């Protein structure tokens, strides 16, 4: 099963960006961790990061067309991008929203995510381990039912 792990703006700077908040794991390490976790779980994990909103929208459309599950850290877009939320609403398979930091314990403008209402579930504040937990959840969910073509 294909799972897209999609990351929004500035997450490519992990490992050097506000290490007190986001930790020392680099983006390259995060990619390796997600791919390795996927391999252990029998998932085909594709990890991407972008600073361009239209690129993320295109990737979400791709996942929607394929019926693929998504682990998404929308980063700053979480807090205001209705376009990202609308693209997430197109997804047919589960969407797990992940935040490395506990957005509820930070500045008030981070407390609300416009994406959460269209996500299957949200993990925040558990560091990069949140990505691993999201992948575990997706691997453990029952296989989608085959369409009934008997009629
Ligand atoms: C973040 C939290 C957001 O508020 C912030 O803009 C990010 C990262 C997180 O992973 O904790 O870039 O999504």
CA-to-CA gap between the ends? Answer: 27 Å
Radius of gyration: 15 Å
User: How confident overall, as mean pLDDT?
Assistant: 95
Strand content: 15-25%
| Fraction of residues in H or I helices | 25-40%
Spans of at least 5 consecutive residues whose pLDDT stays below 50 are none
Number of strands: 5
Largest sheet: 5 strands, parallel
| CATH C-level label | Alpha Beta
Shape: globular
Order of helices and strands: EHHEHEHEEH
Return the structural class: alpha/beta
CATH superfamily: Dehydroquinase, class II
Arrangement of strands in the largest sheet? 2-1-3-4-5
Q: How many domains make up the 3D coordinates?
A: 1
Bound molecules: 1,3,4-trihydroxy-5-OXO-cyclohexanecarboxylic acid
- The number of helical elements comes to 5
Shape-level CATH architecture: 3-Layer(aba) Sandwich
Family: Belongs to the type-II 3-dehydroquinase family.
Active site: 22 (proton acceptor), 99 (proton donor)
Site (Transition state stabilizer): 17
EC number: 4.2.1.10
Chain-wise SSE layout:
Elements lengths: L1 E6 L11 H4 L4 H15 L2 E6 L3 H14 L2 E5 L8 H7 L6 E5 L21 E4 L4 H12 L11
Helix pairs in contact: 2-5, 3-4
The structure holds 1,3,4-trihydroxy-5-OXO-cyclohexanecarboxylic acid.
1,3,4-trihydroxy-5-OXO-cyclohexanecarboxylic acid binds next to loops.
Descriptive account of the structure:
The protein is of the alpha/beta class and 151 residues long. The chain has one domain: 3-Layer(aba) Sandwich (Rossmann fold). 34% of the residues lie in helices and 17% in strands. The protein has helices spanning 19-22, 27-41, 53-66, 82-88, 129-140, and strands spanning 2-7, 44-49, 69-73, 95-99, 121-124. Strands 2-1-3-4-5 form a 5-stranded parallel β-sheet, sandwiched between helices. Helix 4 links the parallel strand 3 (69-73) and strand 4 (95-99). Helix 2 runs parallel beside helix 5 and helix 3 packs parallel to helix 4. Bound molecules: 1,3,4-trihydroxy-5-OXO-cyclohexanecarboxylic acid (DQA). Residues 10, 73, 75-76, 78, 99-101, 103, 110 line the site of 1,3,4-trihydroxy-5-OXO-cyclohexanecarboxylic acid.
